[in-house]
């Protein structure tokens, strides 16, 4: 559970000097209007935060350029543990339509750094929302679990250990960067946006001047929705950031086909996931979004108002609101909405993994065979396809538990694997060539799913 039982009082939210890659950018970002300090005793929701905005002219800067840098509000470093300080970095990135955009990442600095080299863990939280105010840079302060599922009977209850995971990583001397990878429009499962934003959060963190540099070892980690952002970052690395070296990635509860997931969770306790998977990708495609809205019913219990209300819901609220519903009941033509040419094109562009590039670094995939949210067959296909193309993958299929169980059951194995990546001992501890696929039985926790 999140250890957030605290009061945030009388803390200065200071704004550091703007920084960027060039002296010209630096001069622009330290202009009088942008360099004014913002004082706040508590963190502000992104929708109300004047500094959760890109400065005028940000489009002219390269992806990964730092647009704003500030020390995070409140006592986030204290409640996280093993943390000396926390910073918010607003940086230039690229959206799903390949247009200039921006995002924010939260960079945690360890109390005690590694003596031999620096290491950065890029940690993608499964925050599963279309509300920008639920983004990690803000929700990490909240006692409400990010990415939580419904609590009914424990069917999909998540004990979100995000701050604990971050604190443990910091305790190993790693820096940890946590991006708001859905971007300013909170485009859930807009995979192109998420992959770009993840890569650029790493670029910005390495350029921050806060103890990291281009020689730092880098690893990605994401579970469920976080696996989407992490994996697409791997796919885009070679074409989008050829200068960036990612040393490895751990992908848990892998969501390898966003659209198939819609059909799997529809009418189940996980139906809210389908809402995000249908609406999230089209948010950045205005014509497709307009078409989607036009297909919603205007009357009855399942109508446009109820469906669009999801855009202002936390994950917990969303899972409760759409519990066991058929999401297709909200549409005039039911599931045919997914075959509308505009909507289908937006989904297809953000749907399939493995088609934009082969991971150049080692990958650890861990997944429950009985995963009730995303079929194991999709992960099998992902691994087999990449293995045929020369990837180095360790794939463990757990015979115990379901989607959320594996988040816990897979944790020790993921951390051990990431440790080998970040301390440089991977080739001594794992097969560094080809693929290893095995079934395992790991029962740290089992809810019976």
From TrEMBL:
One of its GO terms (biological process) is lipid catabolic process. It comes from the Eukaryota. Keywords: Hydrolase, Signal. GO terms for molecular function: triacylglycerol lipase activity. This is Lipase 1. Residues 1-27 form the signal peptide. It holds the Pfam family LIP. The keyword Hydrolase applies. InterPro entries: AB_hydrolase_fold (IPR029058), Lipase_secreted (IPR005152). Belongs to the AB hydrolase superfamily. Lipase family.
């Amino acid at each position: 559970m999140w250890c957030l039982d605290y009061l945030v009082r009388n803390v200065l939210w200071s704004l550091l000097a703007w920084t960027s890659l060039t002296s010209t950018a630096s001069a622009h970002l330290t202009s009088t209007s942008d360099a004014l300090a913002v004082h706040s005793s508590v963190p502000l929701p992104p929708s109300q935060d004047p500094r959760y905005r890109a400065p005028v002219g940000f489009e002219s800067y390269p992806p990964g350029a730092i647009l704003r840098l500030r020390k995070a509000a409140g006592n986030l470093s204290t409640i996280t543990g093993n943390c000396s300080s926390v910073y918010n970095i607003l940086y230039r990135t690229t959206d799903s339509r390949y247009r200039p955009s921006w995002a924010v990442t939260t960079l945690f600095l360890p109390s005690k750094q590694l003596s031999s080299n620096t290491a950065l863990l890029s940690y993608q939280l499964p925050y599963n929302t279309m509300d920008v105010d639920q983004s990690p840079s803000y929700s990490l302060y909240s006692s409400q679990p990010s990415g939580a599922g419904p609590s009914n009977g424990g069917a999909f209850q998540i004990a979100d250990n995000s701050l604990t995971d971050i604190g443990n990583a910091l305790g190993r001397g790693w820096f940890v960067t946590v991006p708001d990878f859905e971007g300013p429009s909170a485009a859930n499962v807009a995979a192109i946006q998420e992959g770009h934003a993840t890569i650029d959060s790493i670029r910005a963190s390495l350029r921050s001047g806060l103890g990291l540099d281009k020689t730092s070892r880098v690893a990605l980690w994401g579970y469920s929705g976080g696996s989407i952002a992490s994996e697409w970052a791997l796919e885009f690395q070679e074409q989008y950031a050829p200068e960036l070296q990612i040393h490895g990635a751990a992908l848990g509860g892998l969501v390898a086909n966003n659209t198939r997931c819609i059909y799997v969770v529809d009418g189940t306790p996980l139906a809210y996931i389908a809402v995000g998977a249908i609406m999230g990708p089209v948010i950045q495609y205005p014509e497709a979004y307009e078409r989607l809205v036009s297909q919603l019913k205007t009357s009855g219990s399942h109508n446009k108002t109820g469906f669009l209300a999801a855009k202002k819901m936390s994950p917990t609220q969303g899972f409760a609101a759409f519990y066991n519903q058929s999401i297709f009941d909200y549409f005039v033509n039911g599931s045919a909405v997914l075959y509308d040419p505009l909507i289908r094109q937006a989904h297809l562009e953000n749907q399939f993994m493995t088609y934009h590039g082969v991971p150049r670094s080692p990958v650890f995939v861990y997944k429950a065979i009985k995963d009730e949210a995303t079929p194991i067959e999709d992960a099998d296909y992902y691994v087999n396809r990449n293995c045929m193309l020369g990837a180095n993958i360790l794939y463990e299929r757990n015979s115990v538990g379901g989607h959320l169980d594996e988040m816990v059951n897979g944790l020790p194995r993921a951390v051990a694997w990431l440790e080998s990546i970040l301390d440089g001992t991977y080739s001594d501890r794992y097969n560094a060539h080809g693929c290893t696929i095995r079934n395992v039985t790991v029962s740290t926790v089992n809810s019976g799913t």
